[in-house]
Specification:
The structure is a homotetramer. By secondary structure, chain A is α+β, with helices and mostly antiparallel strands. The first copy, chain A, has 5 helices and 20 strands.
């Protein structure tokens, strides 16, 4: 946990954006803008930058054309320039640093690093705030953009979920090197098979789930927030009519207390529409441990999660039968 | 009440469509299709035919360009050809018949008549069912059209509300000549100032409210159904961002038990988004009478109705201070 | 279809109540009143009469102690005394009449009969309307009772679903002898395996589904209406905390377009919380036919229905593997 | 803003509880437990301790019998013992400290102080977490208590709103002495008439609004969170049936983007049911300034706020006509 003098401090502010790869750029974009409700901020070469109507920055999703689906990088914003420096030093000491990136559309210099599972991440401080065009400027001075008439009511980025062959190694990296706090985890016997962590009061900004395929560095899903359960239900109707495969939900997880709907975008990446959950304000929150005994209530209601939820990630690999859900 | 032998029968099936006039055709249509969620079925001369995604017929709204806003006609479907004949005979005997219309896009021969307040109405049996184009055909075999992505979730026509200087005369006409049943009414002293009637189990297919302006034959509003209160709330956000004036709501009426949102379309006509209410299945329902004593709960919750609700109708006239709300 | 002269008429008004048997009377009642949200109207001998807050009559559910769970009878209200007479004559001619019952708490003389599957039914006209005690009288003059504070928002009886070895025989009986209209059905090859019928604009007042167990006269479920999807979600949370087994849902059927949640009351009978659906106003509605091709969308979203949904009914029998879902 | 070395730190974790006074103890408690949905944790002398089902600590509301309604104290939890020490030192330097309280049921030693308007506050670190009795222990390991079947779905304490003759002095005190961040405020000309501040990502943990009565130290309201807009609507129905006066809502504020319902508990204090809003994650959030120009959209939808909202606080004083809404 980061410290200044004798005091713990929060150096990582929040999840800033995620870059995903798609082998079907046109279809992915058509889906994201016409159905999922994101808006295009910028386009350059093989990448398109997108945001939801309630996101305050230039973008929260970057989509890049590639041979296979998956996550290209996960970006965190630091709380201040000194906080950024402190985290860079820590990452360098840990030995996982990759060096500075000059910046990208929408943000300033970013320090790149990899988690133990091999997912590329970056951290930066300077960021470009969203400037809506005149017609989309709202009289709600606290909101960055008019709520659109069309699309699912996707409001803001919420969290990212990554697959890792060793969950514990990855969550310890986030705790020790970046100051994340473990909020909940699943432990089967001695093995931690899922961990939910955050730097904010959200129950998770990021989660790791165990990849039983033998691969590492894969992507499970990126979640956007909708305002309530009614939005999930409306979204389910709209997704069905758009011919999009809903993998599971609307339903409720016991873990995170979240209401969820999982779907596959045309490029093959899993996305989540998420609402509910709970906020963690106590500074001395004890991580919640779920065990094999909780299996029957892990989906609190709404049907069981299908096998694909435990085996499918991007890029796809030959599925191996999941043993430790 | 219509009778066959000694038995009461239902000859009028339901509200089929309403034709409204607008002095701002382009703006009205833009609003109805881009915000309010209706779809264009057909266009001819100065009229455009529209329907909501859950309406089964060719159209439920006809919009016609005119010098002033208001209602052009209200159309009812008969339950059968003999039922149509019986009603035509009754209307002729009553002396309010205007004769047969050959038909219109979307339906067959219609018999025209006027209510005591002078609103033009028609009744027909033959109707054209909606045929969606291939891309909008849904796998939900019981639904006429795919639910659109986004937009206010306007699902189907619900009811029409007309202004009349003499509420009692008009509701008696509907009861005696067309077999409507009085469901609820407001009586202040000796005077009936509002009446809600239906031929279906809906608490109202039509309502009359007292016009205190001295005018007659004016239009109060046309209501479309949305699926739940969450839709009203989302609609309120979208309407505000679209610059549409919300007159009242989301809130709840005691009368009809309905959740409502009233707005003005750009042509000046009042529209309602409606949900909730209740269904009346008992054949011997006693009309509910509201009196002056109920004034404090007439809006069950959600703020008071503004004066305009009691004085404004289309076409607009110089408002006279309402005395009998 | 009933006729008076040359005209079709509706003689059956609506579903009035259902009597179910329970082998665990105390637990069933505790659940129904403390969790499910019904209120006790009356108690006599081995039976208790219950209603939801929005039911207008004395009761909509009668629970009777018995050795096994199941349905004891299904009661319909006629639209008028002559309508009742006409139906009794038709039932006698059909040969399924059982004779007159003097009445029961809450209603007058009832004519008893059995459907081809052996379910006992009755039809009556005279009924006792609910009279709330003073503290539960609402200022909403159109509502029979105050909405209770909290609880699952169970509002009114909606429909009943019965199992039958021969679906077609039973639905034809309802059509020909009682004037029900077929709204939707599932036909696999030549065999009708489910039929949804109504006398009201509700998409179903009653359904028959094929019993593949070899038994006949069994009960699938009784459904109560809640106002919206949010109620289903709240109910799911409450049922889980009350230790009640949710069989399926909250989710959405393609058939009936209904949002559902199925649960088992402690006596073993399946109950449904239902909302959504759609209303059928056209007098010439063509029954919707679902085939084997629709299997993948039969649950529109929310997970698959478990095997128990297709095999379990009350009284329970040795399940036989379902072949024709 | 608190600093450790060169770095800003968060010393105040969140709003822990509020103590309100009531002149009608029995009625206030009956309402809070039977309708509002709180549970009694403890009772001693003239005080009762309460919490909502989703509150993690022993209590979030203490109700104390007194001659007049109002707020007795507002309690904040520190993030750590050193953070507590740092804030005590700062408060002493500011000259508003009142000294240490040994503790109270549910928490350890607390340092008392007053804001410029004279509201008593306290800050502590040690706290007692809620231990549900066995029957109310939920299998949701991340939740402190089963969701109850009864009552409005009040989930957790959200924020407190205080009246002050000088808004600016009070919000600066919170910023400078306790590290709160100004999120939004209303400025009319030169005068700040309302300020919304937080230490968490909630848009406000506390607000000050201008008291135009000449009094100081008064209470505007305490807000509890419900999960969504549907809960507000259900609550409105339940409150009306319980005879509780709803002052305004369900409706939506532009400020805070919150959905609200204000009511008066029987003792005369205003309570709010709150949901929606938005979360502030950027570390460099610029306070949002609302001016006279925004008056027409200050209630985003749902009717105007009544005069009482701007003049009534507890204890009640002779209302002075509000000039600066």
């Amino acid at each position: 946990m980061p410290a200044v003098g004798t005091e713990l401090v929060q150096d990582v502010a929040h999840l800033a954006h995620v870059e995903v790869r798609t082998p079907r750029m046109a279809d992915t974009l058509e889906f994201l803008t016409a159905v999922f409700g994101l808006q295009e901020s910028h386009r350059t070469g093989s990448s398109v930058y997108l945001r939801a109507w309630g996101d305050y920055y230039h973008h929260t999703l970057k989509v890049t054309e590639a041979a296979t689906a998956g996550v290209e990088h996960v970006a965190w914003r630091a709380v201040s320039p000194p906080a950024l420096e402190r985290r860079v030093t820590a990452l360098q000491q840990w030995g996982c640093g990759r060096g500075w990136l000059e910046g990208d559309t929408g943000h300033g210099p970013a320090y790149q690093f990899v988690d133990p599972a091999g997912h590329l991440m970056e951290i930066f401080y300077e960021v470009e705030w969203h400037e809506p065009r005149a017609a989309m400027r709202t009289r709600l001075r606290n909101q960055p953009h008019k709520r659109p008439i069309g699309g699912i009511g996707t409001r803001r980025i919420d969290h990212v979920n990554l697959l890792a062959s060793d969950v514990t190694a990855n969550r310890r990296f986030l705790e020790d090197c970046l100051g994340f706090r473990l909020r909940e985890h699943i432990v089967h016997g001695e093995r931690e098979i899922g961990a939910w962590l955050s730097v904010t009061p959200l129950v998770h900004d990021i989660a790791y789930m165990r990849d039983t395929s033998g691969a590492d560095g894969r992507f499970h899903h990126l979640a956007y927030w909708v305002d309530d359960a009614g939005d999930l239900i409306r979204a389910a109707d709209m997704l069905m009519e758009a011919g999009i495969r809903i993998e599971a939900g609307p339903a409720k997880h016991a873990i995170t207390n979240g209401l969820f709907l999982y779907l596959y975008e045309p490029g093959g990446n899993r996305l989540e529409l998420f609402t509910g959950g709970y906020l963690i304000f106590p500074p001395d929150w004890e991580p919640v441990t779920w065990t094999e005994d909780d299996r029957d209530v892990r989906v609190w209601w709404g049907g069981e999660l299908p096998d694909s939820f435990f085996t499918y990630g991007t890029p796809a690999v030959e599925p191996v039968k999941a043993k430790n859900r």
